[in-house]
Structure formats: structure tokens, C-alpha cells
Amino acid sequence: MSMRDSERGKGHGHRGGPTRTSRRTFLKSVVAATPALGLLGCGPRHGSAQARTPVYFTPDEATFIDAATQRLIPADDLGGGANEAGITTFIDLQLAGAYGRAERWYMQGPWPHGIDQQGFQLKYTPAQIYRDAIGRVEAHCRQQHGKPFAQLDPAHQDDLLHALEKGEVDLGDIPAKTFFAMLWQNTQEGYLADPAYSGNRDFAGWKLIGFPGPRYNYVEDIGKFGRPYEAPFVSLVGRDPSAYLRGES
Amino acid sequence: MAKRERPVDVVLVGFGWTAAIIAQELTDAGVQVLALERGEFRDTVPDFATDTIQDELRYAVRKQIFESPERETLTFRNSADQTALPMRHLGSFLPAAGVGGAGVHWNGQCWRFLPQDFEIRTHTEQRYGRKFIPESMNLQDWGVTYDELEPHYDRFEYLCGVSGTAGNIGGVKQAGGNPFEGARKRGYPLPPLKRCASTVLFDKAAREAGFDPFPCPAANASKPYRNPLGVQMGQCTYCGYCEWFGCGNYSKASPQTTILPVLLKKANFSYRTRCNVTRVNTDNTGKRATGVTYVDVDGNEIEQPAGMVVLCAFAQHNVHLLLLSKIGTPYDPTTGRGVVGRNYAYQITSSVDVFQKEILNPFMGAGALGQGVDNFNGDNFDHGPLGFIGGGYIALWNTGGRPILQHYLPKDAPTWGSGWKKVMHDNYLTATSIATHGSVMSYRSNYLDLDPTWRDDYGNPLLRLTFDFQPNEHAMSDYLTDQATKIAQAIPDATHHVKKRDGHYSIVPYQTTHNTGGAAMGADPTTSVVNRYLQSWDVPNLFVMGASVFPQNAGYNPTGTVGALTFWAAEAMKRYLKNPGPLVSA
Ligand SMILES: Cc1cc2nc3c(=O)[nH]c(=O)nc-3n(C[C@H](O)[C@H](O)[C@H](O)COP(=O)(O)OP(=O)(O)OC[C@H]3O[C@@H](n4cnc5c(N)ncnc54)[C@H](O)[C@@H]3O)c2cc1C
Ligand code: SF4
Fold first, then answer.
1. What is the pLDDT of residues B173-190, one digit of tens each?
2. Is B383 a known active-site residue?
3. Total structural domains in chain B?
4. What family does this belong to (chain B) (predicted)?
């Protein structure tokens, strides 16, 4: 029988392949992606992001991320910004998890420099890149302006972010462009990923663009050309992800 | 000393699309078949249940559904004068790991190649003359014809429940279908998918531009369907989590939804997961495979003896195994001699993003919901004045509107800040994109071999990819992009962002998982690795499946042709099993 054979090697996740999931393991996996919640001792589903102690970031790093992401996605007449959407918490939890550790990346040396077409060739994980780069950006701010990034006025903050984007700031081993691209990519993820991951709070990102969330059946609606789709926003963990993250649902 | 397992008649390396077909066919023929898969077992329930799988961050962005490069990757460079460096995380293509292979997370865009594609060298010489073919190009006939493959395309389409409108039944053109397609024996098993707002826009605009649009063939079931194996599929719900995800609705054709319910019940079939095959073993003559060696999840090396070996591990993995096992002569780019690793090709794509006023609700989509034109594919148009070889389709696919990776922004839009918020707000529901999907020919300078420096977790050299787009491909792709722009221009009140494929090939942005070649099929053992039945020229009890056997790549997604070739090869294997030996004499 086939099944018996397939059971061989049970008990060890094959790091090369995706692991089996189910609704229950999904919920667990969100928690796994948010190890902090357990570490904080308030139960695996307690994750109210408001002023939650960061897991990976130091308080100063979190302050930097708060300030930088709020410039990348500001509060304006189209709605709240990165801070209101919980993006610092999202990035913090991502860096504390498998992504932060580059768990699925090939990280064996040697590490020569490559050309753009060869892609990422740094020996640092995303978590290390953030730590190192934030430290250097802050040193740059102190040297240029005598204060940390978060205390610069918005125009100066924007100037510095543009300079990072163009690769005009020296961050040692880490090209400024690489750090900026990673920060901006993770910021967008925090705004547009399922709120189950602690960002996109109150569906901020999805409300901005009009994406209703993971719904499953559009057989009837797909033929209603030109009409807005008006069902309520929904997450993988229901209509009220904040309550879910607080452990109330 | 490696542990030795009990011998089996046939061992399959990998348990994805091609392995599932071969297993089903050969177990029907009465032999004992074992599939060895490096990834996990997975099935519709629980792995692809909609409340689990519809997670863009986890599956598409962090790429948890695909191969993890951590253990095994490849190195890449554009040309032989550069040092190839490891692909440290996935980008340009997304190979699979796990039962069902990439069949789990493909789109289901299920095409037939054109009859001329299989005889491209002969056809090109006849129509344009020998001199039309660049010196550096390895343009090759396949050794099999469209007419020979037609019944096998038909089998794959009926296995999958492909939805579409036929364009040519028995040589008679059919209204509403693709007027350029090769003659088919009968229509598709299912009518086309529903139209969505954006495919309707495309259809109208393409007609206005003077082209012949049709619904693209989709292995997403437009209606409930029972396939010839008796397996039931459900109607696609246009959930939009299709490509890069598994289907929770039994609607996208995959090994799980079309074959496994029957195959897994058979007494003469078994499979083992978490088994990474590292070698095909041969006897001391080197002319006979004795089985394979694999490493299990605990790091144990295990020998699996078998009477016959079939490589079903996906394009580049098949080639890697051939090179590691020293089967066939490796290609040497300096002399042009040797065959294993030669003829690597890919796909060249571009797009024209369209910004218009009507609400399109892009999130209501399916992996293969598209409207296309084939006026500029293959040799459907006169290449004489254009001077390049090849072509491709132009289509508007509405595969979904997943917010992180599937939003379009106008040219020169602000990249962040309040300006970015505004363009996201203004365009997400109304923007769409027209894609071009072009052929890539094979060249002396594009190939696969073993890397001298980097190794995988098993201590083996990584595969090394040397590849770049050539002037022929850029000229062809630019031409296709110009035609796509004409369609975009026929959409009322719209602006466009034309995204040509400029410059060198890069491993960074996702393009397609349509890696081809490296173990080309053909009639001549000096330019091919396997014969027209996908049987190794060197080791007759070894067969190689999948797009690795394409001598060059056509302007379509590969899997329709991969499926047809697999059924075709399965017939030949049945003959081989009765009467072992080379099916073609070299
Ligand atoms: C995101 C995506 C979208 C796609 N969309 C389309 C589409 O719309 N249309 C189309 O025509 N094609 C599409 N494709 C391509 C299509 O999925 C493949 O052509 C098809 O699955 C190939 O079948 P295969 O059997 O060769 O490989 P696979 O189905 O990938 O199976 C190979 C299996 O072998 C296993 N394996 C590899 N190496 C080893 C080893 N050493 N030991 C043991 N096991 C091993 C892998 O884990 C995998 O499970 C898409 C692919 C991807 C990734
Ligand atoms: S779009 Fe259709 S075929 Fe694709 S995953 Fe959703 S239900 Fe399945």
C-alpha cells in the first residue's frame, strides 16, 4: 500500500519542501510567525499591536522603523499611515521569524560580488541587514543633523529616504539601495498582507485600494461588469482580525 | 555502505505532473512502479483548503509553496566569461517541491504548440532559406510531429478537463476559436471560462486592432467535469488564488485532482516522500541503469534498484541528475560537442499595462482566465522582412488581483509616500495588463553544466546556468510588444505603460517557470540526449520526461506539450517493457 511507504521519515520536516497545513496549523503558523506572542507570556493569540514591545527590534530600532515607514506610507486625506496600520509590528515579527533568519535562502559561501542580474549576494540575513543598516543610518543622522532620524523634520526624513533609495548613503557592507528596497518591500507587505500577520490593521491597505480580502466564490459576481463589489472586508481569520489577534475571537 | 531497498520494475524520480501520468499508464500495463519525491505529500484537503491557501504573504511572497533554495539551488551567469553565482533565493522561476510538483501551483494555461514548432528547422529553411538562421542558433526539429502527438494532446486535455473553444477541428476552422491552431480531432472537453470585464475589453480592442482573439485554453474547469479516469472536478469559482497556490475547489487540473484518487489505490504503485535522488546508478558497462540512490530526510543514503528509471524531476533537475550520474556526453561550449546541458532555453515576456476608467475587479480571476491572439506566434506571420525567428502569443490574463504582487502603477508614478497611496487608490480596481509570451531559441552560448565552486546539502556540485537573451529574441519580443501596444491603444480612454524586456536576462524578477532543454530530444544522437520516444540514447532503460527534452522553446506555456509527450513516451515505454532495447537505433 502506498500510504505506508509515504509515512517513512515521519517526524522530520523536509526543509526543502513546503509543510502540510490545515486551518489549525495555519493558525499555529501565524503564531509561529509571531513567536513573540508566546514569549510575552500572554498566550499565543494575544498580540494587540498597540504599543506592543517589539520582539526583534530594540526600542530605538522600532522608533526608527515607526518614523521611516510613516514617511513611506504617511497618514493623509486618504487615511492612516504605516503606524496606524501596525507595520512596525508586522516587520518586527517577520524579522523575528523564518524570513528574518533567511531560513529558505542558500547562504553558503564564498561570497563574491555579483552583477545586478545575479541578484542578492550578501552574507547577511534580513534581520542582520536591518540591524546593521539602521545603526548606520542613525549614525549618519547624528553626524549630519545632531539627532536621530525620528526627530528630523519630515522634509529631512524624506531627503534621507530618497538618498538611501538612490544608494547615496554609505552603509558599509550593505548597499543603501538594498536596505531601502527591503524596507519598502516589507512596508508594502505590512500594509497589504492579510491582517492575520499583524499589519494591515483594520484592513487599512485593502480599504485604500478596494481589495475585499480572500473570498472564495465569484461565480455570479464576475459577470457583473463595471460594478463595484461591496461585500465586507474579510481576513483569513475572519471579519475582525484585531479581536483575533487579541485572543477575543 | 548505502542501505539497499527491494527492487522495483520502474522507479520515477519526482512525483509531479509527468510522474503521475507515467505511474498511471505503467501501472495499468501491469508493472510495479515506485515514485521517489523529495518534498512532502499534499492534497486538496487539508493543504489547499481556501481558509489556508489564500495567503499571499506566505505562499507567493515568502514562496513557501515552492522549492527552497536553501538546500539546493543553481548558480547563474549571463555568459561564460563571468563567474556564476548562486541564486540565493527564488526569483525568475519557481520550481516545485512536493507531491503534485508544479502541477499544484501552475496556472493551467494549457496550450498545444503549432505543427511548425516541431519541425522548425525544416520549416524555416524551406520558407526563408538556410541563411536566415543565425550561426549561433541550434535550431532543431523535434523528431516527432504534431500529427503524431495530436492523440496525446487530446488525452492530456481530457484528463485535465480543459475549458476552451476549438479553432480547428479536423482541418475545418471553427468560429470563436484560435484560427491558427493545428487541427484537432475534437473540441475541448469543456466550454470556455466565463469572461470578466478585462477580457471583454481586450477582446474588443484586439478585434479593433485587426487581430483574431479567442478564449485561452484553461485547465480550470468551467463546469463540473468527470475525467476519463472517473475523477470528479468542481466548477472554478474564480477565487483568484490560483497560480502560485493550490486549488481548494478541485477545479484546477493537477495530479491531485485528476490522477491520484485512482493511482493511490493501486496495489502496484507506491511512493515515498522526503527522498532526494542524487544519482542514477549504472552497471559497469555504463549502458544500463540499475536504479537510483537517494538521501532520506535523516541523511541516510539509500539505494533503490529498478529495472527502468524515469526522470520526472522537472527541467533543470533532470539535467542536473544526468550530469551528476555521468550519463551522456556533457556539452562543451568551446567545441560545440556533447549534448547534456545543451539547448537550454526559456521564455521571453513583456507587458503593456493599461490604465482606464471602468471598474475591473481584478481579484475575480482564475489562473488561466484569459483572452489571447495568436496572430504573431510561431510562423503565423511573415518573418521575411522582420529578420527574426519565432513569435509568441499576446493575451490578457486575469489571474487575480492579489494586492502585494498584482497591482499596476502608471509610468513614472511616485514610488512611495502620499503620491504612491494615491496611485494605488486610483488604479488598483481599474488597471490591467496585456502580456506577451515569446519563444526562445537555443544557442551555443546558453547551456547547463556543473558549477566548480558551490555545492548542495548533499555535497554535490550545483547546476550552473549560463544564459542570456540573444538579439533574435529581443527583436522578436520588441515586435510582439509593439503589437500588444496596438491592442492597448484600441482601449478607450486609456493610458499605457509599455514594459519591454530590455537588456540582459536577470534571475531576479519572476518571468516564467518555463525552463526548457538540457536533455533535448531528436533524431540525431550528436545533437540530442534522448530519442523521439524520450529514451536515453546511451542508457536504453532510462527515460527523461518534461520540458528538459524541448530542443528550443515555442511561444506557449509548456505543459500541454509536456503532457502530450509524456503520454506519447508512456506508449513507447509499454513497448519497451515487452521488448527491452533501444526503440530507435542510433
Ligand atoms: C508558478 C508556476 C506557474 C505555471 N503555470 C503554467 C501554466 O499556466 N501553463 C503551463 O503550461 N505550465 C505552467 N507551469 C509549468 C508547469 O507547472 C510544469 O511544466 C509542469 O509541472 C512540469 O511537470 P514535471 O513533472 O516536469 O515537473 P513537476 O510537476 O514540477 O514535478 C517535479 C517533481 O520532482 C521533484 N524532484 C525534483 N528533483 C528531485 C530529486 N532530486 N529527487 C526527488 N524528487 C525530485 C520535485 O520536488 C517535484 O515535485 C507553471 C509553473 C509554475 C511554477
Ligand atoms: S481560480 Fe478556480 S481553478 Fe484557480 S484556484 Fe480558484 S477555484 Fe481553483
1. 999 999 999 999 999 999
2. no
3. 1
4. Belongs to the GMC oxidoreductase family.
